[in-house]
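[stage:ingest] chain + small molecule (PCP)
[stage:ingest] validated
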Amino acid sequence: MGTFLTVSDEAIKSGECTDIYFIRTEEALQHDKINPHVVMEVTATSLPDSWAVFCGLADVLSLLDGVPVTVDAMPEGTVFYKNEPVLRIAGKYRDFCRYETAILGFLCHASGVATAAAYIRIAAGNRQVFSFGSRRQHPAIATMIERAAWIGGVDGVSNTCAPEGMPIVGTMPHAFVMCYKKPEDAWRAFDRTAPKSVPRIMLCDTFCDEKSESLRAAECGATAVRLDTPRSRRGNMRAIIDEVRWELDCHGHNDVKIFLSGGVTREDVVAYRDCVDAFGVGGAIANAPVIDFSLDIVEIGGEPKAKRGKRSGAKQVYTNKDGEHVMLPLAGKGPKGTAPLIENFIADGKVVQDSWMQAARERASKSLLLMSHS
Ligand code: PCP
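[stage:predict] done
[stage:export] tokens:
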């Protein structure tokens, strides 16, 4: 263990970070000289909603690079449904059984975050959504959280350790405003020191009501006002937002946008998307329920075989231009006008295709367009 309560990369890569029953399994199989060739599939028999976004493959590839297995998977950013295999591993069971814990951990968590981000992205329509939730998780996984949120479709993220290739955005904390005698001093200080490219989004709920602070911020040159109203003060958030909009317009600040944050949920996004220009979403993305994936044997010794509740045999998922899916046995062809979704990523222990973040985001974005019209 290092300085923080985290597991080192080396311990994950070696499979040392696993559930103890896999170590016992290895020992018993080794003792009895049993090591069958298996095909295993990752599936979810239920989802938080009707579909989900596959994410976390990049870490699985890093983990299994050099392990003597073949890995086929849906590319990251693919929309999938329950019972569909999203990843398949073929190899000698004992060679990779200890990695199940990390494989599922990578996929369950990242796919949960990407899925929540995707649903909120659709709910927001043409409004912007930013991921503000890295503080809701252990900082050691901030990069993963922001990457998954980006793949799911957010417009920017707040953590400075996000992977390169996405906008890093943020406004100002209440603590900053409180360091000055009055909010105007803080807003002007921000305006003087923040790079010109940073939007002047002023936090407008620190001491006074949202209406008066928003008007004062607008007078100080705010391009947007951020309302982060505490739960204890929210009688009717809709009325507060409408009132702020009215007063801003009434005083000639029609171009000043409204940015909402603080416990924003998918339901809030739906409720306020007509009167809010941008949302800062924390826990509703970063603390999303994980996708409940499992990794199960579907073939053993070349024969189809699966435990109760799982379907035997390796499978392929095909999609058509409307985004509809059909799952069929791997052997054989897909229906006319469809394309297979599961591709090869590791062949005999060698990564043959990387998982690119921006391609994953584009893939998800195309699918979300279809989902939002269906
Ligand atoms: C933070 C920020 C956003 C919050 C987190 C997003 O609030 O202002 O509103 O996370 P959430 O959606 O899970 O609430 P605070 O922690 O109140 O920090 P600050 O006062 O510095 O804005």
